[in-house]
What we know:
Elements: H1 3-6, E1 12-15, E2 26-27, E3 32-34, E4 39-42, E5 45-46, H2 49-73, H3 78-102, E6 112-113, E7 130-131, E8 135-136, H4 149-173, H5 178-230, H6 236-241, H7 245-269, H8 274-281, H9 286-298, H10 300-311
Parallel strand pairs: 1-4
Antiparallel strand pairs: 1-2, 3-4, 5-6, 7-8
Amino acid sequence: MDLVEKCPGRYCGKLNFSIGGLNECTSCPSGYRTNVSKYCMPCNESLQLYDWLYLGFMAILPLALHWLYIFSVCQHKSKLAVMHILSAPCELCFAGIVSLLLFSPAGTLDLDSCTVRQLSDWYTIFFNPKIKYTTTLHCAQEAVYPLYSIVFVCYLFSLSLSIILRPIWTYKCVGKGAERKLSTKVTYAALYFYPTLMLIHAIAAGLLYYSFEYLLILASMIAMVIYCIKRDLLNVRDIFNERKILQHTFIFFCHLLLLSYAIIATGTFFAMNISQILPYLSATPIPLAFFFLTVQFTDPNTVALETTNREL
């Protein structure tokens, strides 16, 4: 009986004796994955660009939630908003660097990984084989190492930094009263963001891996439209007539940046080179231009006025 028959299931294997393994079929340890011969082999492949973009997307999620909450809560406290806006990316960058240093190869900003081959690689727990339909052989493992575990580690470090550092500089830099309460409220928001994102990642990591670029495009355009409507930005002149021109410019720049990021990820997924992706990047301003060109035809006041004129 060959090894394939001895180790049933998609993710069951046994360790190679050359690296001190056991002669039994089981789940591979962390940092290993089964090969074609059903041996647990170390993950020593380099991450693909699409994998790095996925990890970047998972870092963008908490940052976007932080900034959206800060803009909604601290819109009349510009100094306080800037402090929190700068604090959030610093915390995430530091947490990301520490996470990279901890994973193999330790002490470097590179990652050894196992290549993602299919959606089921993210959900090995659902593919435990049954021996003779009676005994379940538990072979759940991280077949996509380290794309699954490193996100939890990064979120945990970032949450810890938010809890430790923000109260300190809030106490030192923010005055007493309403501003301090507002700053504490923003800090408490992280206690809800990160556990929620961890739960989403635990359940839907594989689905996000194959669809994050499309979700990013959709979310970016919806957020841009909502922002323009709430700020009553119905044409380009409104952007420059407002006192908050820097805030508007920053929001629109982030929108274009996210669209460009999603387009690059989409092209990378379909194995396109940079020369093939560049023409699509030139189309990033089109949704914003389309909004300003067509919003006058969908303005409720305009529609109501035309309806009234027709009735008369």
